[in-house]
Amino acid sequence: MKTTKRLGIWMDHSAANLMDANYEAIVTKTIQSDFTRQERDRTLTKGEHMMHNTEQQGHHAYYKKIGEVIKQYDVVVLFGPTHAKDELANLLRADHHFEKIKINVKHADKMTENQQHAFVKDYFKHLLETN
Length: 131
What we know:
Elements: E1 6-11, E2 15-20, E3 27-32, H1 37-44, H2 48-70, E4 75-80, H3 84-93, E5 102-107, H4 113-130
Parallel strand pairs: 1-4, 4-5
Antiparallel strand pairs: 1-2, 2-3
Helix pairs in contact: 1-2
């Protein structure tokens, strides 16, 4: 019987906490977006169009890094306070490399690391109970 690999990701546009939920203790890895507030302010001085292009490129690179990790899992829950989770989910659903991965999106407020871990544990516990 194959073990289902589970991953919880709390994210906003600046950082993603990737939580491997396959062990008793959750292991968290953080991926930072390269498009920081300082980068935004710097490119905005060159024009709003330039800033939006740079922002889109920054988000794309950020989502690509997260996607590379997601490829190693079977079930993923994306959660967080901004639309970043929805943007990532839409990109992943459009890419055939992710078609066998079950990806769910949940809204969540800002959370401490312990709250994120509790959310992931509860989410996958509930998922296992309903299957």
